[in-house]
Amino acid sequence: MKAVARQFTPDPVAVTVVLPRRMPRVLGMGAHLKASICLIEGDAAMITAPAGDMETLEAVKTYEGLLAGMQARATGPVACIAHDLHPDFHSTRLATTMGQACLAVQHHHAHIAATVAEHGLDGPVLGLALDGFGLGDDGTAWGGELLWVDGTQYRRLGHLKPLAQPGGDIAARQPWRMAAAALHGLGRGDQIATRFADQPLAGMLAQMLDKRLNCPQTSSAGRLFDAACGLLNVCPVAEFEGQAPMALEALTDAPEVMQGGWHLNGGVLDFAPLLAQLPGMSPRDGANLYHGTLAAGLADWVLHARAETGLDAVALGGGCFLNRVLTGRLETALQAAGMIVLKPIRLSPGDAGLSFGQAMIAALTLERQP
User: What percent of the chain has pLDDT over 70?
Assistant: First the structure.
């Protein structure tokens, strides 16, 4: 008699976070890059490993397999499916076709909620979210955000001064474009064509910036990193998003703070003085000046927000906090000033942990319904 092989389905759960109480059964669908899925069941939040960047069919298939595995783990129907605010993410489109109640969650709110919940705390807290991209509630590209967060509620207290993103999303893979935007913003647009003469589109880019054609604004910290990389000629064209900032971090061995390297105006943090200093510096010297000044400016920003709100705890979230130099210096500066700094514990600060924050916001929303 021929044996029939049993089908083996691997456990999709990579991390389990024990919650302080039982909560409604919900799913968090993650975002687009490094998308994961979170199921809250009872007093446990179960999070998958990231499926990858859902720009490939392979990643989409992996993601849908993880979703099926998490649905099979649920002991009953979920009460809500939380997804990113961006309508064009595969995770969002999938969530809205599953025939269940959905909740759109702003990207950076979810980042901070994930960090707060992993510590088993409730708000209110300050939240510093630094990453490459997340759709803001005003329809623009966010990524350098200072928030007030209290569970299901958040308020934008401030943001990095926006930079133009010449060509849109392609600028995330071509840091020289963000450097060109920085030069243009500094009134040095006439330098773009010569400084980036090896880039065939450099001349056209200057004209695009002059006319504001296909140059959406972004407050992204990731794109600020890219601008610094382009100005220092560190990986001017990258093979993947984040490659240039990682190369810049690797060059950093003795961070320095540039006095007067930033301006703070009504909650908007502007590193134009720092960017103006980088052209002509060696990559290593520029990397040290950039990291030291960035951390000092961010600490100044958070401490101003503490004075305004009375909150002495700040939660960190977003992929830029994978940068150990930045995170370490910022944490040291804030703790020296008496702040409580909440960092992710077992989950990634990047998008791999985002689904947990989405799910927590959905569960808290259901708890607070009459």
Answer: 97
Q: How far apart are the first and last CA of the chain?
A: 60
Strand order in the sheet with 38-48: 38-48, 13-28, 80-84, 102-105
Q: How far apart are CA 79 and CA 26, in angstroms?
A: 6
DSSP state of 237: S
CA–CA dist 29, 26 (Å, integer): 10
Whether the Cβ atoms of residue 47 and residue 15 lie closer than 8 Å to each other: yes
Do 361 and 110 form a contact (C-beta atoms < 8 A)?
A: yes
Please calculate the CA angle 88-89-93 and round it to the nearest 5 degrees: 80
- SS3 sequence, 105-148? ECHHHHHHHHHHHHCCCCCCEEEEEEEEEEECCCCCEEEEEEEE
Chain centroid to Cα 59, Å, comes to: 20
Cis peptide before 124 (omega within 30 of 0): yes
- The residues pairing with 268 across neighbouring beta strands, listed in sequence order, are 159, 265
* Residue 227: its H or E element: helix 221-231
Task: Give the side-chain half-sphere CA count within 13 A for 256.
Answer: 12
What string of DSSP letters covers 68-104?
HHHHHH-SS--SEEEEES-TTSHHHHHHTTSSS-EEE
Question: Exposure of 305 by Cβ count < 10 A (0-12 exposed, 13-18 middle, 19+ buried)?
Answer: buried
How far is the C-alpha of 113 from the C-alpha of 209, rounded, in Å?
Answer: 36
Which residue in 115, 137, 163 sits closest to 268, CA to CA?
A: 163
SS3 19: strand
Cα separation of 275 and 201, whole Å? Answer: 22
Distance, CA of 163 to CA of 161 (rounded, Å): 7
State both tokens at 21.
Answer: 């109480």
Residue position matching structure tokens 């830029």 = 320
Q: Each residue of 148-175: pLDDT tens digit? A: 999 999 999 999 999 999 999 899 999 9
pLDDT in tens, 235-275: 999 988 789 999 999 999 999 999 999 999 999 999 999 99
DSSP assignment string, 13-32: EEEEEEEEEEEEEEEE---S
User: Is it the case that residue 115 has pLDDT exceeding 60?
Assistant: yes
Please tell me the number of Cα atoms within 13 Å of 81 on its side-chain side: 22
